[in-house]
From TrEMBL:
Molecular function per GO: pyridoxal phosphate binding; transaminase activity
Protein name (database record): GntR family transcriptional regulator/MocR family aminotransferase
Superkingdom, taxonomy of origin: Bacteria
Organism of origin: Pseudomonas duriflava
Domain Aminotransferase class I/classII large residues, every copy: 30-310
Transmembrane segments: none
Record's keyword terms, sorted: Aminotransferase, Transferase
InterPro entries xref list: Aminotransferase_I/II_large (IPR004839), HTH_trans_reg/aminotransferase (IPR051446), PyrdxlP-dep_Trfase (IPR015424), PyrdxlP-dep_Trfase_major (IPR015421)
Length: 355
């Protein structure tokens, strides 16, 4: 789940840009990379975010990391301390949850409803929390967008408490109804939001490239901490991605993928609904790279997940994304690599045998 359509990756163009990077590279490509990120990529990301995500930042505020977890570690070591209390969406991205727990941070599950993270509940459960981890554009895993009133309430709380908001915008570019929503960071007038983006979903996970945009007042601190971590990303990959963005290929690729994913999403939805019928209810989602199937009463999502994985299907049980015992039953299914109706029908049939 969450794997981009690798068959649609522009390999010829990528190889050409990478070859050019190697040919034109000087001695700077042979030494240790800048721990904060290659200057060309930091500038390209800053420019892209200003146009596409409404984020006004300087290249010096962008820090390139070797994946999402490396971004979290950089934030933790720069601003937080062992034992700090933080809000975490319930349900929420379990990989991030487990990583943060290994650092000694204390996570408070805050429920997500139809308007996203319930900020008022968070203020009751842990009003003095030092941070909040959120996925406002497309909540992981429920797919809900954080409402404007909740965004404003979250920013107001962070400003009053001098707390940090960690915004994970993992697939905000993919929205199939209307235009992509502006990032929460775009509303951040007080400098409390740390914005994380990744190229794993929009290009390829093998790049191991992500980035965090920090408030201007924290850039010097982050640069110091980045220099102490072994978080270097290969020069050739950073420089190639920078060229991909600067020359306009990235915007064209996203436009192409939005259209492709909308089509593939429809293929899988139609196949699932015609095959599984009354056993599931499809949660409506405006964007993202996965579907959420709610199960009818009597079905065990973990048992179905186990059967599905034995059948070679990458279905995930929704209940595993909860930290508490109060869970909801459902299945998370990726659709980005479903190429045609035949494959969609085959996947739906195989999944139906797991119920």
């Amino acid at each position: 789940m969450g794997l981009p359509a690798l068959d649609a990756f522009p390999r010829k163009l990528w190889n050409r840009l990478a070859s050019r990077t190697l040919r034109q590279g000087g001695l700077d490509g042979l030494i240790y990379p800048d721990p904060s990120g290659h200057a060309s990529l930091r500038a390209a990301v800053a420019g892209y975010l200003g146009i596409a995500r409404g984020i006004n930042c300087l290249p010096e505020q962008v820090f390139v990391c070797a994946g999402y977890r490396a971004c979290l570690e950089l934030i933790y070591r720069s601003l937080l301390h062992t034992g700090d209390l933080g809000w975490f969406e319930e349900p929420g991205y379990f990989i991030a949850r487990e990583f943060l727990k290994t650092t000694g941070l204390q996570l408070v599950p805050v429920p997500v409803d139809t308007a996203g993270l319930n900020v008022q509940t968070g203020m009751v459960l842990a009003p003095d929390a030092r941070f909040a981890v959120v996925t406002p554009s497309h909540q992981s895993p429920l797919g809900i967008s954080l409402s404007l009133s909740r965004r404003q309430a979250l920013l107001e709380w962070a400003s009053q408490q001098k707390s940090w908001i960690i915004e994970d915008d993992y697939d905000g570019e993919y929205r199939y109804q209307g235009h992509p929503l502006p990032a929460l960071k775009s509303l951040d007038a007080e400098g409390r939001v740390l914005y994380i983006g990744t190229f794993s979903k929009v290009l390829a996970p093998g790049l191991r490239l992500a980035y965090v945009v920090v408030p201007a007042a924290q850039a010097e601190r982050f640069a110091y901490v980045a220099d102490t971590l072994y978080n270097h990303c290969p020069y050739i990959l950073q420089s190639t991605v920078a060229a991909f963005i600067e020359e306009g290929h990235f915007g064209q690729h996203l436009k192409k993928m939005r259209s492709l994913y909308a089509h593939r999403r429809t293929l899988l939805i139609e196949a699932l609904l015609s095959t599984l019928d009354d056993a599931v209810h499809l949660d409506p989602q405006a964007g993202g790279m996965h579907l959420l199937l709610r199960l009818a009463a009597g079905y065990d999502d973990r048992l179905i997940e186990e059967r599905a994985q034995r059948a070679g299907l990458a279905a995930q049980a929704l209940s595993k994304w909860y930290a508490t015992s109060e869970t909801s039953s459902g299945l998370l299914l990726g659709f980005t690599n479903v190429v045609d109706k035949i494959q969609a029908a085959d996947l739906a049939t195989r999944l139906s045998k797991c119920f």
